[in-house]
Amino acid sequence: MLIEIGLLLITHLLLPTIFLSWLWRGEAKSKLDWLLNILVDTLYTIYIFFSGRWDWLSYYLRFILIILFFIAVLRSYKKVRHLPFYPIKKYQSLFSLGVNCFIIIIFANLSFLILQGFSFHNKPVEFAFPLKDGTYYVAHGGNSSIINYHNTDRAQQYALDLVKLNSFGTRANGLYPTELTKYAIFQDTVYSPCTGKVINAVNSFPDLIPPETDRQHPAGNYVLIACDRVEILVAHLMSGTIVVNQGEFVSVNQPIAQVGNSGNTTEPHLHIHARQENSGETILDGIGIPMTFSGRFLLRNSLVY
Ligand SMILES: [Zn+2]
């Protein structure tokens, strides 16, 4: 987890600071140099704005980044507006041009992958959002592996991992606390996303202390519900909180459990995905289908109130 936290700090704080300081210092040799710097900074800002896990530092920080970007652009323009368009020192500028073009190609590709995440191929199914007691943040969601780590798995292609934000816009009190109660979502009530019949309910696995995981039982405690020609799974539920049984009929918005930290999970969150009925032998097999909530297809950094 130390590596993940290190990467998070580099990509969300260090790199934006470096890119913004290039603009802020206004050391471009020509307007062309300046435009390339702007393009690099714009592409990186788009990439990290949409693909960043802002719930770790603060959801609001992503908007501060945008504001700082515009201030830096305005400030740097004042410094370059009297410079010639083309470079004066040819060789120095060619090197700078090459570096900028390389970075532009990388981040243009990454931005394209994020754009793909907004699309879905099959007809989506509408569900009721399963959490109702606060502001919820989509940690993983969308149709691209750059914003949804489940996306490479056929059954979980459109799966969502949900956390809750506290008043500071972070998912936990601390960067990666070991106390489960420091995570805002822990013990929140989970409501049935549809009216249907419980296919299976498992309630026997313990809640783990981060970063412990149980790879033998990926879903941990879960409820699998058959709705109208689809099956929907809610997973990583809190031990002993599931109040529905196999074969029972449930109504949409009926409380069914609480959010926990059981199974293959690094911290408390709610996992949810839908699949075509009878398309998988185990709970994690099948053909995933896109879900909408109040007509919205949710992606990383979406908020639901
Ligand atoms: Zn998940």
From TrEMBL:
The keyword Aminoacyl-tRNA synthetase is annotated on this UniProt entry: no
M23ase beta-sheet core domain location: 188-278
Pfam family, one: Peptidase_M23
Domain of life, per lineage: Bacteria
SUPFAM superfamilies cross-referenced by the UniProt entry: Duplicated hybrid motif
CDD domains listed in its UniProt record: M23_peptidase
Keywords of the record: Membrane, Transmembrane, Transmembrane helix
Residue ranges of the TM segments: 6-25, 32-50, 56-74, 94-115
InterPro entries per record: Cell_wall_metabolism_enzyme (IPR050570), Dup_hybrid_motif (IPR011055), M23ase_b-sheet_dom (IPR016047)
PANTHER family linked: M23 FAMILY METALLOPEPTIDASE, PEPTIDASE-RELATED
Name this protein carries in UniProt: M23 family metallopeptidase
Organism: Gloeocapsopsis crepidinum LEGE 06123
